[in-house]
Amino acid sequence: MLINISNRESQVRTVLGSVMLALGTHTLWFVFLPMGLMLIQTGLTSKCPITHLFSKESKAALEYRYISFLPKHNPQPVFIFNANNELAFSNAAAQRVFPEINSFQALFTDDLESLIHNEGSCAKQFQTDSGKVFSLIAKGSRELDSLAVYATEITEIVALNLEIIDTQKEVVYTMGEIGESRSKETGDHVRRVAEYSELLALLSGLDAQEAELIKLASPMHDIGKVGIPDSILKKPGKLDADEFEVMKTHAQIGYDLMKHSTRPILKAAATIAGQHHEKWNGSGYPQGLSGDNIHIYGRITAVADVFDALGSSRVYKEAWPIEQVMTLFHEQQGQHFDPNLVDLLTENLSDFLAIRDKYPN
What sequence ranges are listed for the domain HD-GYP (predicted)? Predict the structure, then answer.
């Protein structure tokens, strides 16, 4: 049974059918008439006569069409969904791994009709009840009036990526704690700053992925303190003007340590280390940046760092009451700090205090 006749074959059938129709008419060999009509019909419709007359394709014919459309010897699950959102075909692997899937919408939320009409594509990750993770790629076809979904198992790849991310987190937190421990800060400080930074990033409108990046990178904000002499870093009293100038170099040192990395976390950490002491009015250091010229990562970490430093006890000071902390932020709104971020901190203060309670010194 011929299905989906090519353009070339359609032209040949139409011409041949026309010749046979002419022969049957002029020679009275009437047997050519039905044969000519059938060839013309198949050439114009690209359909098998039986299929066209009944407007229906047998299951075997459908499967032949679908299988011929798919890559050969594919051991991964494959589905084909028709324009009515019904499962029209699935290979053995799909039936074994996804026995419950019977519609396109069970896998995707995209518009099926639009994907078919525009021959578009979409992709997503899908986790089965057994914990296996698959990469799903859907591709529409006007020829089939259907959409094919190809599934590739990526469970091991996802697990490996998570392991790499966890390792990076551990290294970042450890390095952050090294920087803080030299100035007698606590490991909980870098964890609170990380949590504050993520929350503030989300509140400011950054997406979850970028907020997670800031969370991972912000513990490195003071890594440059490893380059500050102990006589200055651990001085119990107030620093004099010259000592403070040396202390200020920790921002540039931190940036220089990580600026050549191509890893997203370390690139973000370099930006944060270099800009978390910049001030909204341009009076900060090391570059004297102002306003939106300060990277949002630096502005966010600046608020998180000061909020935690003021609200936490240190060997050289007691924790400030939260009312006094917020008074300072309102006084420095638009001076030291991004005014929008101060508003977000004020409006969501209870969420920030919950993080402080979660990681006490």
Answer: 164-361
Helices (H) and strands (E) in the chain, counts: 16, 5
Reported as type and span, the H/E element at residue 251 is helix 241-258
Closest by CA to 135, choosing from 111, 112, 155, 110, is 155
| Active-site annotation holds for 279 | no
Find, among 338, 40, 7, the residue nearest to 329 by Cα.
338
- 307-352 per-position pLDDT tens digit: 999 998 766 678 899 999 999 999 999 999 999 999 999 999 999 9
Same domain, 235 and 198: yes
Instruction: Name all contacts of 79-83 with Cβ < 8 Å and 24+ positions apart.
Output: 79/104, 79/107, 79/148, 79/149, 79/151, 80/144, 80/146, 80/147, 80/148, 80/149, 81/112, 81/146, 81/147, 81/149, 82/145, 82/146, 83/112, 83/113, 83/116, 83/145, 83/146
Cβ atoms within 10 Å, residue 153:
17
Phi, psi of 177 (to 5 degrees): -70, -35
Do 291 and 277 touch, CB atoms closer than 8 A?
Answer: no
Tell me: do 128 and 229 sit in the same domain. no
Give the whole-angstrom CA distance, residue 150 versus residue 139: 8
Domain check: are 206 and 122 in the same one? no
Residues 6+ away with beta carbon under 8 Å from 344: 200, 203, 204
Pairing relationship of beta strands 78-82 and 87-90 according to DSSP bridges: antiparallel
- What is the number of structural domains in the chain? 3
pLDDT tens across 155-182, in order? Answer: 888 888 777 777 767 776 666 666 555 4
Do 69 and 33 lie in a common domain?
A: no
In the chain the beta strands, taken as DSSP E runs, fall at: 78-82, 87-90, 121-127, 133-141, 146-153
Q: pTM for this structure?
A: 0.58
Cα–Cα distance, 108 to 174 (Å, whole number): 40
Structure tokens at 304: 């998180």
Among 47, 215, 225, 279, which one carries the catalytic annotation?
225
109 and 23 housed in the same domain: no
